[in-house]
Amino acid sequence: MPVGPAALEAAAARMPADRPHVPLTAGTVLPFLADRLPMAVFANVHSAGDFALHAGLSQSQESPGTTTSRRAVATAATIPGLGRPA
C-alpha cells in the first residue's frame, strides 16, 4: 500500500515498518488509492478508501435490523464455536 511522503511529513508520522506499506512514487500503480490524507491528531496517514470503509462499517452497525445483518447473524450461527444467535 503506497503512502505519500508529503502526507507523512504533514502528519508528523513515520513510514510504517511493515511489508505492505511502500513510499508513493511516480511509478506507483493506482496512486489514487494511496494513503495521502494526513491525520495530525493521530500522527497517521489515511486514504479516501479508509474513510469509505469506516463509513460503511459504521453505517452497517447502525442498522441492525437490515437483511444483511440478519444474514450475518445466520451465517455466524453456522460457524462452530460462535454459538447461536440470541
The tally of helices reads: 3
User: Care to count the β-strands?
Assistant: 4
Helix content: 25-40%
How much of the residues is beta strand, in percent?
Answer: 5-15%
Strand order within the widest sheet? 1-2
Which descriptor suits the 3D outline?
globular
3D structure, described in words:
The longest helix is centred in the middle third of the chain and has 15 residues, at 48-62. This protein folds into 2 domains: 1-46, no CATH class; 53-86, no CATH class. The radius of gyration is 18 Å and the shape is globular. Strands 1-2 form a two-stranded parallel sheet. A two-stranded antiparallel sheet has the order 3-4. It is α+β, with helices and mostly antiparallel strands and 86 residues long. The protein is built from 3 helices and 4 strands; from the N terminus they run βαβββαα. The model has no long low-confidence stretch (mean pLDDT 78). Helix content is 38%, strand content 12%.
